[in-house]
Amino acid sequence: MQYILLSVLIGLLSVTSANPILHPRASPTNTNSNTATSSGTAPCAAVSAAHFAPTNPDGTVPANLAYECLKSVPLNITAAKSLMGEIRPYIRWQTNIAFLKNPPSEYIQKIQSPVDILAGLDQIEAQIDSGAFFGEYDFGSALYKLILSAHDGHFSIVLDSVGNLFNFDRRVPLVSVSEDGVKLPAAFVYADVVAQQFNTISYTPSAVVRIDGQDTATFLENWSQWGILQDRDALYNNLFYELAQVSIGGSGTGTGTFSGGGRGRWAPLTTATTTLTFANGTSRVYNNIAYPMFSLSGIDSGEKLQQQNFNYYDGSTANTGEAKLQAAPGAKAAAPVSGSTSPAGYPPYVVAGPSNLVNGYYIDSPGYTDVAVLSLPNFEGDSDYEADFQSTNRNFLAKAVADNKTKLIIDVSANGGGTVLQAYDLFKQLFPSPAYLPYGATRWRAHEAMDLIGQAFSAVCPLYPRVLDTIQFYVQEMQSTYFDYEEEADVNYKPFTSWPEKYSPRVYNGDNFTGISRYNLSDTLITLQSGGIDITGYGALAGLSNNPQPFKAEDIILVYDGYCASTCSIFSELMRQQGGVKAYAMGGRPNTHPIQAVGGTKGVNNYGWDTIQSLVSLGVRATSGATRTRYQQSTLGTDYNAYGPFARTSWASSPGCNVRDGLRQGDDSGTPLQFRYEEADCRLYYTPEMTVDVTAIWKAAADAHWSGKGKGKCVVNWWPFSKREVTTTLKTSRLRKRGANDAKVMEELLNTLTIKTDNQLRGSGFMQP
Hints:
Elements: H1 2-13, E1 31-32, H2 43-51, E2 61-62, H3 63-71, E3 75-76, H4 77-91, H5 97-101, H6 105-110, H7 117-130, H8 136-148, H9 160-163, E4 166-169, E5 174-177, E6 186-189, H10 190-197, E7 208-211, E8 214-215, H11 216-224, H12 232-237, H13 243-247, E9 273-278, E10 283-287, E11 289-292, H14 302-309, E12 351-352, E13 359-362, E14 371-375, H15 386-402, E15 407-411, E16 417-418, H16 420-430, E17 441-443, H17 448-460, H18 473-479, H19 499-503, E18 506-508, E19 511-513, H20 527-530, E20 556-560, H21 567-578, E21 582-586, E22 605-608, H22 609-621, H23 625-632, H24 635-638, H25 644-647, E23 656-663, E24 682-684, H26 695-706, H27 742-751, E25 765-766
Parallel strand pairs: 14-15, 15-20, 20-21, 21-24
Antiparallel strand pairs: 1-3, 2-11, 4-11, 5-6, 7-8, 7-9, 9-10, 12-13, 13-14, 16-25, 17-23, 18-19, 22-23
């Protein structure tokens, strides 16, 4: 036994747990070299000339030229065919492949159309063989759009041709607002709304009625599908400028997908301009631009760009050069620590958290002095700030109670997730009683690779105590994963007794899934999954379960912009289903229909492909003798060795899968939360003031929920049989009162227009923007 353990540990010490395993393979050479252009000058040469022109200080280039340059990069056919085979093992980990192909009817009717991912991959391979792709961009774009069509923010494959070269931008952020909260909303140029709200213009802002000759709502609904969200109203909201998104700087979707934020930066702008036509009959033309994300020095053709920026791995070095990456001009990130001023459009904070990812506020206005607001645009995914995030929540709730606040608004606008267990912790801070045991049921897709890893880990881990000071680092690494059967609890919150009991595959919708598991919040190794925190009410913090509940459920409301995803969806599920808290959803398409609160992925755990590859390697090396030989000959030893999936995917968005489905308590159908339609309790339109002052959102939600005077009215409950007017202009009656600080506030807001998505956040449950 001692010899076996020693051999296992020696094997483990050679594992690299964080980085992809590098295995050499032949450098592909077969290419499609068609490079026809629409002008006498090669597109990439024209892009380079424009970038370095003395009259172009910011280095941007016309979007149409950038697009033509991308199209001129020839396709390496051999590399493309190899890559398509190399990515399939990772896609096996994606939990909802079967449900995407055959979703419930309500999902098709109200959310998205079905998509057969595996058939789509087959089609792309056939197109490679038939020569249907002109170049690398056609190939990369086809794969990107296929995965994007799943509208699962955890499922991501962005190839180098799509994500490494140019970011597209319209430079004209829009907002969608109702003049008075009653009329149907319409799109306006945000700069016009800001100027009107601060009374610095002499004209009346007019609604955008056509974009490039097409009806605005139709154009925007179609364009919104470039977004990563699932729900169509959430996708529509994400087109626009929003204070919550810009409050977290480059970690969010910037000024909206219409103007190149979030996934909008990879939506190709194929024309030189965008024309907006307004309700008053006037038009404005805006230049479409692209930000080069690499060095254009010496780039005079698609072939040259390919040589310097595409890594067709040959086992030693990049093919002919290294990509020289540069940040998009104007990209800004959120402040790294607490203590800075509040974000633009926000009041002074009462308690500040790390990087503006959580702040506590009061509403300093008559009629709202009993309301506290927890602004929560993220569930912190940086281990350096996990404890700060937890303590910010705790300190603010305690201060709010001490200051006689009796009502709490939790604003989860812009919240794409973060660390999964932070959602559990905040729920338990709000509902500390042991009676509120978080349900949080999850399951995985059952397949050979994960079963083998589970068998290997579960054979080794019980031989060691589950203690934090275990000297064998890789044993502790295994013990803190799902694949040790001792980790987590069963559906009844009881311990598993073996890996077969935990794995216990069963069939739903024609696919194989594991049995249900739940986080064991008292596990001694919980801090290895939570970024270092114990969960309120459990383990070292078990005594806090005796704390009084800070706010009654009826005195808490959740405010959403539809972006809530991943860990945020977990928090929402706990708060609404177990806590009984009401949900208030903002914005949506220009209609009077109910809308969902959670519009992002409702998957509950994402794995980067590097994490999967590390688990695979660790699974093999956790074995010895004949078992190791068997593992080396299995899918673990043969399917995860290629470097292509890492060399060819974008540095701006690591490839990943949703590895856990969330399941509703009491639902025996096996349908993941991702495929359940669930309306908010109330819908409110955005108004112009809400785009410059976030407290206007909080006041509207407070009025709708708590006002006994009928001040606040939910959209679908007011005038249900009346046809509503459409907002066409913003009248002077909506102007803000001039104040001494207005010039500074307006400047801060206008400065946010340069924020671009930089995607710096991570987490065990985080949707990349």
